[in-house]
Amino acid sequence: MIVKSHLNRQRYPNYAKAFNTLITVLLLIVLGSTCLMYTNGKQSTSSKNRVISCCSKIPSRITMASAYFNDSFEERTSHNGMVWINGGEFLMGSSDNDGSPDEYPQHKVDVNGFWMDESEVTNAQFKKFVEATGYVTTAEKAIEWEEIKKQVPPGTPRPPDSMLAAASLVFQCSQHVVSLSDPSQWWTWVKGANWRHPQGPGSSIEGKDNFPVVHVSWYDANEYSKWAGKRLPTEAEWEFAARGGNLNQSFPWGNEQVETGKPKANTWQGDFPNHNLGWDGFKGSAPVKSFAANGYGLFDMAGNVWEWCADWYDTDYYSQLKNEISVNPKGPSQSNDPSEPGSPKKILRGGSFMCNASYCKGYRVSSRMKSSPDTGLEHAGFRCVSDN
Ligand SMILES: [Ca+2]
Ligand SMILES: [Ca+2]
Ligand SMILES: [Cu+2]
Fold this sequence. Notes:
The chain is of the alpha+beta class. It is 21% helix and 14% strand. It has a single domain (3-386), classed as Alpha-Beta Complex (paralog of FGE (formylglycine-generating enzyme)), CATH 3.90.1580.10.
């Protein structure tokens, strides 16, 4: 069975006209002073007979500033909210028959130990980063025609500015049964959609501090990681962690199907994309940690939102590694997606609240998704790792 990602452009109808190609591409390329007074006051009372200058022993402003910087840097780079994953050897890739061709063959991989965020990065965490740095996400910026031009057929006319306005891809539940081979039926390019407005203008993240941040591009996720003193996981680290010690099983919790027993992850139940039963308690994204952790104490490694990894995507990557033990593999040196050669892609893992067995089992530990690094999506976020 071929598992189709929600964004598999291979499945798009063949657009003959250049302008339509451009629209498709656009649609998817997104895809101290109080403290000093206190100190001086203490010194005055303990040494009554000495005249203390109000300015004695005041550290230089550089010392003060760097102390402050160090404090806050240490706070945000501490291992709070992270778990240590002992590395080891495992078989990477699909162990069942449900995978898409790029999940085979299974091959031996050895990863060093690392720290990993126990949950997806939340709106509250991302907000701290934006407030501290003034960072503007990809989805909040207008699209640069010069960038797009490289990826569309030569001679494609420049679209009107309105089409290049800042926007991102929002899921819109269809009112009727649609063909599962046409993702444009449920993805809408919405101006003004971004991490602060996940469903577009009028929507907000108020009261959603604990929800995963979404509409972040790979670049955004990477910048956040650096600011936090962390990095994005490699695809191998991500899969090793998702397996939670259950080597060679299909899901983070083992082999029980996602809709058997009690809810184990935030996925989609019902007919995708027009009828969402919400049996697991959530029709859209869920607050992080709403479901049980896996064997390593990691939450939402299946479902909720897709998670960016550091690696480029190469459809043949696993075949290239089949005869060796790969030690800390970092992915191919460049992207290779024959279905869209002009558009380099990064890896996403873990599936989302939109995954349903009828369409996409992205919540399997070996499922691979890919998207161009400037893509923002309503069902995609990330988590970080660090080495020490
Ligand atoms: Ca759900
Ligand atoms: Ca997830
Ligand atoms: Cu999916």
